[in-house]
């Protein structure tokens, strides 16, 4: 099939492009390179523009017979979204609306959306399933939840079918070492820890040691980015089977504490990773763990790289290959 990947030069998007090409799909990528990297694209046709440009979207859909769209072109930094919500609503909401409108005009009715566990807000219970209340606590989460509601309306009005994949903590790197995580600035725990291991960062900061967890540090659910990529292809297969729209969690279903991640990184890297202590951050719940039963049931998805050591080992290979020369 011909798949349009929006934001295909980013961390998750580039892994999706690689996986789609490997299983035999044709890929067209749209990216404005505000956060993506040209060398992360391992194939496909590239079109460089911002998706708020309706004329360029219409030209793309008239040039290529697109069967389905996968959308990853969102800004993702929670803290920045609080300080600068305008940036997040324009890109994450207005940009997505422009894309959906162009799809309707072109009669493209299959859409896979990169959503987030941030739509749930502070958890009422653990593990979090798809029917958990949706109470996002920051503009980033709000923007994603707004898009999810819009997708429900577009399904009813236009027959545009979607799968909204709610990620927990995407982590790791391509097992072949060709792709990895490189945000600027970096805010994700595992790459921050590995930057401290490689010497690109002086230390890693642990925010809070007094949570109601077994070792006092926060617990999060980490999903390998390649397992995430496979889930998207399975979601594509699901949509092409004329199934109903769905919202689906993606996580390991088990959590690892911040201290466990640090200890595992020390074992994998053989480095003494310096740690600084800091108070809790506002809005950090003690635990965030996914119930991924629906993904297992309707997508027949099963993570292949679920253990923390493998996730960190793949990310460490990327760190060494690309930043330690």
In short:
The chain is α/β, with parallel strands linked by helices and 325 residues long. The chain has helices at residues 11-22, 54-63, 78-83, 85-106, 139-158, 189-198, 225-240, 258-269, 293-298, 308-323, and strands at 2-6, 26-30, 45-47, 68-71, 110-116, 161-167, 169-171, 204-207, 219-220, 222-224, 246-250, 256-257, 275-278, 287-288. It is built from ten helices and 14 strands.
Your description of this structure?
The chain has 325 residues and is of the alpha/beta class. It has two domains: 2-171 and 224-250, NAD(P)-binding Rossmann-like Domain (Rossmann fold, 3-Layer(aba) Sandwich); 189-221 and 253-323, UDP-galactose 4-epimerase, domain 1 (Alpha-Beta Complex), CATH 3.90.25. 40% of the residues lie in helices and 17% in strands. The protein has a seven-stranded parallel β-sheet with strand order 3-2-1-4-5-6-11, sandwiched between helices. A three-stranded mixed β-sheet has the order 12-9-14. Helix 1 (11-22) links the parallel strand 1 (2-6) and strand 2 (26-30). The protein is globular. The N and C termini lie far apart (39 Å). The model has no long low-confidence stretch (mean pLDDT 95).
